[in-house]
Amino acid sequence: MVTLGNCVHTRTLVLPRLADLFKKQSYPGAANTVPGQQWGPLTVSAGAFESLEKRIFEAYLEAKSDPLVGTIEPSMYLGHFDWGEPFPMPTDVRPYAKEAIGNMIGVHAEVHRVSPSLVQRVLSQITETVAEELARLLLCVSHFSKEGGLQARADVRAVQEALGPYVSLTA
């Protein structure tokens, strides 16, 4: 996460500032031949940082998303839970929803501590992955009892409320 934050900082702040300083000091080769473009070598460097940033971002997302998503299904069916069986009316969300929310809080804290500007970008991607997994699992249920439907709705709403700022149209 620190490396990702450093890449973003270098690409968005340091390289443009260097380009401006080179131009102000009339550094040879710093003059633009195409209006609106940065100095050539710095443009190449910015592209390299952008490519590195993308690879680091994808690796981080995979490292955080896979374990988080991997815990949802086993936790959802803990105790041989059956959505189609009648059971007492739901009064709380199931542990899998609480666990998913708790894990997302952990990711938020980790990202915010290192680079607050990346929180939206990281959490929106992970939220989309979690939403896809929840949708996949709930679509696999062949039959919901009345109580099972209410429970599923309560669980989904709890996750939506907790992750609301990071929910995209896709999620």
UniProtKB/TrEMBL annotation:
The family database entries (InterPro entries) matched by this protein are listed as:
EXOC2/Sec5 (IPR029175), EXOC2/Sec5_N_dom (IPR039481)
What's a single GO CC term here? exocyst
Function per UniProt: Component of the exocyst complex involved in the docking of exocytic vesicles with fusion sites on the plasma membrane.
**Full protein name:** Exocyst complex component 2
Note the superkingdom of the native organism: Eukaryota
Q: Which residues form the Exocyst complex component EXOC2/Sec5 N-terminal domain?
A: 2-170
Pfam families attached here?
Answer: Sec5
* GO BP, one annotated term: Golgi to plasma membrane transport
Subunit:
Component of the exocyst complex.
Q: Which organism is it from?
A: Ladona fulva
The entry assigns this protein to a family as follows: Belongs to the SEC5 family.
Going by the UniProt record, its keywords in alphabetical order are: Exocytosis, Protein transport, Transport
